[in-house]
Design brief:
CATH architecture of the largest domain: Up-down Bundle
CATH class of the largest domain: Mainly Alpha
Number of helices: 11
Shape: globular
CATH superfamily of the largest domain: translation initiation factor eif-2b, domain 1
C-alpha cells in the first residue's frame, strides 16, 4: 500500500496535490492546485490544515506556479516575491506559512545562474521542507515523544533550534503538528482501501495491506496513532483531545462505512 501524503507534487510537477481536509472523515478527496487563486483559496478555507501542511503547501505552490523558461532571472524572482506576498496574506498569523515561503525565496535570491537554475534550486528547497517534516514525523513515530528530543529532530532534519522554535513554538506545538499529520495519513490510507470493501474477503485483503505496510517499514513504529496515544494520552489533556478526534475520524471514515 502506498503511503498517503496530505501534500505532494502533482504527477507532472506543475501543481500541488492535497487531501482536502474539509471532506474528511466522510470521504477522501484529492485536489490539484494549479493556479495562485486555487492555492490561496485552499489555504484560506482550511482545505489544507495543520501548521506544517500549510507551510509545505505554500512553499511547494510558490515553486510549482512559477513559469518555467519564459522569464529572465530578475523577472522570475520579482514574480516569486509578488506571489509569495499573496500566499502569505491568506493567513497573516500563520508563522509556518511565512517561514516556509520566505525560506524558498531566500534560496532563489542566493542562487547564481539563469532563471532555470533559480527555479530548480527553489524546487529543491521546497522538497527539503517536505522531507524534513516527514523525517520529523517518522522519528517521533519510531521512538515516541519521550524518546525524541528537539536535538534529535534538529539533527535528523538538518535544522537549527531557532528554526524549530520559530516554526512550532515549542515541543507541544511540534507534537500537535505530528498528530495532525499522522491523522491525515492514517485516515486517508484506510479510507482509500476500505472504500472497496464489499465482503469478508475484501476485509481480509485490507488487513493484509495493513500488515504489508508495517512490514515495509521493518515493523518499526507500529500504528502511528496508536504509538502516539500510548505515549501521550496520560500526559496532556490537549493531546488526549486531539488523539481522540483522530481516532473518531478513523472510525467514522473507515470502519463505520464498512461494517
Amino acid at each position: 500500500m502506498d503511503i498517503i501524503q496530505s501534500v505532494r507534487w502533482t504527477d507532472d510537477g506543475a501543481g500541488v496535490r492535497i487531501i482536502d481536509q474539509r471532506r474528511l472523515p466522510g470521504e477522501l478527496v484529492e485536489r490539484d492546485l494549479r493556479t495562485l487563486e486555487e492555492l490561496c483559496a485552499a489555504i484560506r478555507t482550511l482545505a489544507v490544515r495543520g501548521a506544517p501542511a500549510i507551510g509545505i503547501a505554500g512553499a511547494m505552490g510558490l515553486v510549482a506556479l512559477l513559469p518555467n523558461g519564459r522569464l529572465t532571472r530578475d523577472a522570475l524572482l520579482a514574480l516569486a516575491r509578488r506571489n509569495a506576498a499573496t500566499i502569505c496574506a491568506t493567513r497573516p498569523t500563520a508563522v509556518n506559512l511565512s517561514w516556509a515561503v520566505e525560506r524558498v525565496l531566500r534560496c532563489g535570491d542566493r542562487t547564481m545562474g539563469d532563471a532555470a537554475a533559480v527555479l530548480a534550486a527553489m524546487r529543491v528547497e521546497a522538497n527539503a521542507i517536505l522531507d524534513e517534516d516527514r523525517e520529523m514525523c517518522r522519528r517521533i513515530g519510531e521512538h515516541g515523544v519521550s524518546g525524541t528530543s528537539l536535538d534529535d529532530i534538529r539533527a535528523a532534519t538538518n535544522s537549527s533550534k531557532s528554526q524549530l522554535y520559530h516554526y512550532f513554538g515549542d515541543k507541544h506545538g511540534l507534537v500537535q503538528a505530528v498528530i495532525d499529520h499522522q491523522s491525515a495519513v492514517v485516515v486517508g490510507a484506510h479510507a482509500e482501501v476500505l472504500e472497496a470493501v464489499q465482503d469478508w474477503r475484501d476485509l481480509e485483503r485490507w488487513v493484509d495491506s495493513m500488515v504489508a505496510a508495517v512490514e515495509q517499514q521493518g515493523a518499526r513504529g507500529g500504528c502511528p496513532l496508536g504509538t502516539l496515544a500510548a505515549a501521550l494520552a496520560d500526559t496532556d489533556e490537549r493531546f488526549r483531545t486531539a488523539l481522540n478526534d483522530a481516532f473518531e475520524s478513523w472510525w467514522t471514515s473507515s470502519m463505520m462505512n464498512t461494517l
